[in-house]
Design goal:
mainly alpha, ATP_synth_b/b'su_bac/chlpt, 168 residues, proton-transporting ATP synthase activity, rotational mechanism, ATP synthase subunit b, ATP_synth_F0_bsu_bac, ATP_synthase_B_chain, 2 helices, rod-shaped
């Protein structure tokens, strides 16, 4: 058996017709489809380039807007802190005013209560004095009645009444 060496590239008739068909297809493609496809690809490239430019512009605008927003946010925070400080100051002032008013009211109430206590003391003294006087008169009457019954009579009663009348 003899071995046959096959050529590295063998061109037969089928391959020849395939190459011819491929060249004819390339000719038609180039003649009828290359310009429209090129136009479409160029339009697509231009559209992509425009969209990239627009995206870059939008990115820059977004960055500027973000910086502006950050500035506004910082200003708003500073204003909010200032408002809080003013509110705290007003609250402290109001607290001091309320405390002063409460202290003044307390002092007024204490003075009023002291005056009332003094009036009550005077009233109690008057009542005590009248009760002591009534008791003294009652005791004197009992003593007089006892003496009258035992010894003296009406003269002693008249003398006592005269004495008590002079003391008052």
């Amino acid at each position: 058996m003899a071995t046959q060496n096959m050529p590295a590239v063998s061109i037969d008739i089928n391959m020849f017709w395939q190459i011819i068909n491929f060249l004819i297809l390339m000719f038609f493609f180039k003649k009828y489809f290359q310009k429209p496809i090129s136009k479409m690809l160029d339009a697509r490239k231009e559209k992509i380039a425009n969209e990239l430019k627009q995206a870059e512009t939008d990115r820059k605008m977004a960055a500027e807007a973000n910086e502006e927003t950050q500035g506004i946010l910082k200003a708003a925070k500073a204003e909010a802190n200032e408002i809080l400080l003013r509110a705290e100051k007003k609250a402290d002032e109001r607290k001091e005013t309320i405390l002063k008013e409460a202290n003044a009211q307390r002092e007024k109430t204490i003075k009023s209560a002291e005056l009332e206590v003094e009036k009550m003391k005077k009233q109690a003294r008057k009542e005590l004095q009248s009760e002591v006087t009534a008791l003294a008169v009652s005791l004197a009457e009992k003593m007089i009645n006892e003496r009258l019954d035992s010894k003296l009579g009406e003269n002693l009663l008249n003398d006592f009444i005269e004495e008590v009348g002079e003391d008052r």
